[in-house]
Amino acid sequence: MKKIVETVKISPATLAVICCALIAGWLIFLTPIHGYSDNGDFQRFMATNDLYSLHQVQAGYVVQQYGLMRYYNPLHLEHLTVQSVAIQLAVSLNRLFYSHDRFDIRFLGTVHYILYLGGVAVLVKGLVGEKRRLRNYLIAASATLFIADSSFTLYFNSFYPQAMTFILLLYLVGFGLLISRYKAVNKWLTVGFYLSAAALLLVHESTSLLIIGILLMSVGILRFPNRQWIHGTAAVVTSVLLFTCWLSANNITPEVQAMNKYQALTQGRLFATDQPEQIAKTNDIDEQFSLMKGQSYYPTAYTALAPQADYTKQNLSQHYNLPWLIREYTEHPRQFNLLLNRAAKNMLILRPKLTGTQEKQGDNKPFQKTTYFSLFSYVAGAYYPKTYGFNCLLAVAIMIIYASGVLRGLRKANQQLRSHFWLVLGLLSVVVLVPPVTIVLYGMANLVTHLLPVAICLTLTGLILLSDVLQHRLWRHSDEA
Is 67 helix (H, G, I), strand (E, B) or coil? Predict the structure, then answer.
């Protein structure tokens, strides 16, 4: 078997890129195209990027063609994000090669696809290097099962920001792994790491929650020995990342701020108790608002009090704030734990709810979901333990493994393993810290958007651990250049 593997001319990273290109390309480019349909979130992305719906489409179907505005748009790039940059690049390509009046969603899929393949190459090369060994091909195959899963690649043909979140996390971790392979700091890889980090924070307001994990990952880079130039930039890099985090968290409209605040109560604190009227009393809130338990900011059914009404804002929203919510959860840990476990059940549900994945063609039914190349998402969603406590215990167990490996390798100055320690610590901090912060800030609303980075970070941790085990780094302490 070893001799057969040595005759293979394609490196593990190149083979993984080819496999991912074929698997994802068939899904997003060939007709009938696949993607995710609109669940109500597309409008704000379309309005600020000069796009509009050509005609009324039944919910649950993917739409391939959109209209392109040709005149002044007062909302043009009103709130600039990395997702908006990707959409604008797709619009430019569409105007250059296709039409000035109509937008084909596959141009956005192309932008995501090209960036994605680069991320695959960086990540797999960081995991296995260039050597053609059997274990390296096994690691590359395991990575492909995760990276090419249709639950992720279907986002490419949609306006959801999760596509860029997924892609940039591949780059971020990939650059971190590549940097650790060198005896000295590689400046270009370091620049790539921090550009990926800054871009990731600017994808969506919720990705700003990844800041603690990113800062912990960067410790492994900033601690490279005898590299004064990189040590001198630590404060600058940290300040820039923190500013980027603040900018991302505040780059939202007043309407979105009101929605987040409202749902943090109705789908958070009120949602966790059987007696919501008692909570209302604690902060001089009229008990009638306890009827809004579990309600969305944009309710689909009749509601006696509209969340957007001035009466609701004056008598509900202005009577509580973030410190009050934190105090409430602190005083009622059992109810907070209930929400954490409920969020854990949704952590590995990778596809947005109320969406379909196919065009309206032939006998396709609305909200129909493809099962093409979805082994990873099926197994993870069906068999992974669905409690927050298990995630915490798993994180502690993995960090004990890495801490013991680092301690055993201190005498041999194993820089690669030390860098992996900080990289894994950063990823696991996202797994442990993001769910409780998400509940406080957003309640149980739109968990797929907020918790998708958690699922990705958890899986990337598993891939790094698998690579370190099969490469014998945790006990033999041999760096690979």
Answer: strand
